Structures are given as C-alpha cells and as structure tokens.
C-alpha cells in the first residue's frame, strides 16, 4: 500500500498599507502576506502545520516577519483607511 504524504504551501495577501520601507527608504505599499503550510494526503489538505505572516515591500521586495498581533493591526489599519 502506497500513501502519498506531502506539504503544500499557500500565500494570501491579507492587507496592504502605505509607509516608508526601512530598507529602501521609499514610501510604497507594503503587503501583509499570510503563509500557510498544510499537510496533505493524496493531494487533499488535512490540517495546517505552520502559519506565518510577513511584510513585503513592493518597491524592493524585502520581507520582514510579523507576529499575529502585528498582522491583525495592519488589517485593522487598512479597514480604517478604507472608511475615510
């Protein structure tokens, strides 16, 4: 009997905020990206193995890891800006 296990990675942009990048110095949109890794069995996702967030500058492409609280705060900031 052959069982095919694997890990599938997915990424989704959860928020986009504007501020000056620490690395390149440009005021550019910064994407907050949620990255998930899921264990799969026969290409069917079973459960999430890891969940991380990163901030990616659209000007230089540098990535900075974020905590869950920072990612949620960025989402709330984006929602607040959309109502203005």
- Please give the share of residues in helix: 10-25%
Q: Name the average pLDDT.
A: 88
Multimeric state of these chains? single chain
- Along the chain, the helix and strand elements come as EEEEH
Give the overall shape.
elongated
Work out the helix count: 1
By secondary-structure content and strand pairing, the structural class works out as alpha+beta
Radius of gyration: 16 Å
Please describe the biggest sheet, giving its number of strands, its sense, and whether it closes into a barrel: 4 strands, antiparallel
Uncertain residue ranges: none
What's the structural domain tally?
A: 1
Order of strands across the biggest sheet?
1-2-3-4
Residue fraction in strands? over 45%
User: What distance lies between the first and last C-alpha atoms, to the nearest angstrom?
Assistant: 59 Å
Instruction: Compute the number of strand runs.
Output: 4
Q: Summed up, what is this model?
A:
The chain has 84 residues and is of the alpha+beta class. It is 19% helix and 58% strand.
Structure in words:
- The protein has 84 residues and is of the alpha+beta class.
- It has one domain.
- The protein contains 1 helix and 4 strands.
- A 4-stranded antiparallel β-sheet has the order 1-2-3-4.
